[in-house]
Structures are given as C-alpha cells and as structure tokens.
Amino acid sequence: MENFQYYTPTKVIFGKGTEERTGALVKEYGCKKVLVHYGSSSAERSGLLGRICHSLDEAGVNWISLGGVVPNPHLSLVYEGIELCKRESVDFILAVGGGSVVDSAKAIGYGVLNEGDVWDFYSRKRKAGACLPIGVVLTIAAAGSEMSASSVITNEDGGIKRGYSSDLSRPRFAVMNPELTMTLPEYQTMSGCVDIIMHTLERYLNQSDNMEMTDRISEQLMRTVMKNALILLKDPKNYKARAEVMWAGSLSHNGLTGCGTDGGDWATHQLEHELGGMFDVAHGAGLSAVWGSWARYVLDGRPDRFAQFGFHVMDVENTGDIIGDGMRGIQALEEYFRSIHMPVCMEELGIHPDDGQIKMLADKCSFQGQRTIGCVKVLDKEDMYRIYQAAR
Q1: CA-based R_g, the chain, Å
Q2: 348: pLDDT strictly greater than 90
Q3: What does each C-alpha distance from 205 to 252, 301, 311 come to in angstroms?
Q4: Would you state the pLDDT for residue 146?
Q5: SS3 sequence, 125-164?
Q6: According to the model, what pLDDT value does residue 323 have?
Q7: CA terminus-to-terminus distance, the chain
Q8: Given its phi and psi angles, is residue 219 left (phi above 0), alpha (psi -120 to 50 degrees) or beta?
Q9: What pLDDT band is residue 195 in, cutting at 50, 70 and 90?
C-alpha cells in the first residue's frame, strides 16, 4: 500500500430541513458580505433561494447574489463573479446548487484572492495561494465537490474543459438535505449516480498494492449507489434512497476511497472532459458513454483489478480466467448503465462526431500531444484517438 494523508475539513449538516440553518452557519465565519451563487431559475421557483436568503437575513448576514451557472460551468461567469465580489467586498461565497455551482464558486474564490487570470490555475501555468471561504447548500448528488478539493471549469473560447485541485477550496461546510434532490429529472439523477460510481471506480482501478479496507469501502459504496439508483427509477421521491446516494456522492470524492492507493486512473474523466467541452453533454452520461471503450482498451494493464471489480461489485462468477472475468465485469457494468437509461457509446449519448472531431478530441485531451493520461495503461494521443473511435 502507498503512504497517504487523509484530510476532510468540511463540516457536514445532513438531513431534512437543514437548509434552514444556513444563515447561522455562515455567521460562524464572521464574514461581512456573502455572495449567494446559484444556477437556474429553478432555485428561485422552488422557494429554496428565498429560504436561504431569509436565513441569512435572520442571522444578520449581508448578501448579494449571482445566478446563471450552467452544467459544464463557464469561465465567463467566473470572471463576472470575480469582478462582482471585488466590487462589493465579498468575503464568503455560498454555493446553492450542484457540482457545477460549487465548482464555479471555487473558481471565483481563487480569482478574488489571487492576482492575474484565474484560468492560469486550470491551464496549469501556476498554483493558487488563497481562496475565499466556500459554503455549500447541495441540491444534486453527483460531483462530490461539496467535500472535495476539485473544481472543473469550461473556457468557452475553444470549448476547453479543465480541472484544478487545491485544499484551499475545500468547503467549510456542506448542508445536505436529500429532499432537495427529489425534483430532479430522471436523467440528471442517473447521470449523478454514474458520476459517483466513476469517482470510486477510477480510484479503485490503479497500479497499487491496495488496502483491503479501502477496497471493501469502495466496493460497498458502488453497490449502494447501484442499488439505490434502481429504487429511484421507480420511486424518485424515496427519501432513504436519495439520502444513500447523496452521502455516497460525498464519500466517493472526499479522498476516502483513495486511501493507500496511487490515486487511481482518471483517464475516463479526462476523456469525458473533452466531450463536455466540445458537445456540452451531461458529465455522468459522458462518462458512461466512454468508460467501456476505455476499459476494454486497458484491460490487460491490470486484469486482476477488473476481475476483482467483477466479482465483488457486479457478482460475476469467478471462472479462473482473469481476462475473461474482467471482460465480463466490464460488460456487466455497461448492462447496468443501460438499465438506468444511461448511454454506453456516443451514439446513445446523442452525438455523432466525425473523424475530424475525433482527432480534435484526442488533440485537446493530449494537450496537443504534450501529455499522457492514465495509469492502468498510460495513454498517448494515438491511444486516446482509438478509444474515442471505439466509443462512437
């Protein structure tokens, strides 16, 4: 096993009605003015935004707001938020929404307290030295950004989607009421479940001598999400199932499932980022669309891990044929994705890139041939091209 440091400073407030405590939570940090950052008008129509702002008023906390965050959050709105925060002397950001809103809030937080262009952090030109404190009221179980160090932003100039991670941006608190996810459309709910599964699976598929405890946690987390996603297909207002998925989403991406590993193989996420940047697809659906093609391509790089996944998560029979059992595990997960109405190729995702676009995806993902991705099997630009081709 690898040495590890496990750091999860986020205070979690979980359960029914917990959003009513938001004002008091923010006040604990002694801030003078809060930016309430949110996405679509649904936060207003549902009354959630009104309840949050009333809670801030009751606590005597001054606030301003900025909405408009979209899936695959845009750099242009981040710039707008940075300027607004500087102009209004904002010293705390409250993200009300899902992973896209939290990611946008983190980027704004970096931009307010660091000189220069915030995109420099996402394009790996330099590292952030500070970030405004962030709080979260979560409305979508998916990204895990409410407890993670990560954020992903899309630069509309070129459709480039890039991530940046720093413990500086870990939220101070996360308010999680599973009831707030009950109005989500099925597609968003299932996309979120795929994202949670993949956050765990990409850490699980690695080149380490793994800890048994971390493996068992990861396997049960994936099984829990799969079980409850099927429940939510039939009963989308099932509170217990919503709660299980919401808590799994946080645990999948706060570092727990990577303890003792080399960090895992994040090639599927990197491949999907380019799809999201170019075609603006739902992140979880993009992941399920490319995962199987990636998995088949790299299977021989760590067949024992794929086989173990098949045995312990997908209930594949152990035949003693590691490659064959690993392949059956891959096929079983693809069948599961289809059972929750998620795509397993680009055609099912609703996009039809031509060969020129496939080459462009590979070029962007490889940073014009300057980087490789993955660890189960290290992938260069040509490998990426072949995986994208297979995923069509």
Answers
A1: 20
A2: yes
A3: 14, 10, 14
A4: 96
A5: CCCCCCCCCEEEEECCCCCCCCCCCEEEEEECCCCEEEEE
A6: 97
A7: 37
A8: alpha
A9: very high
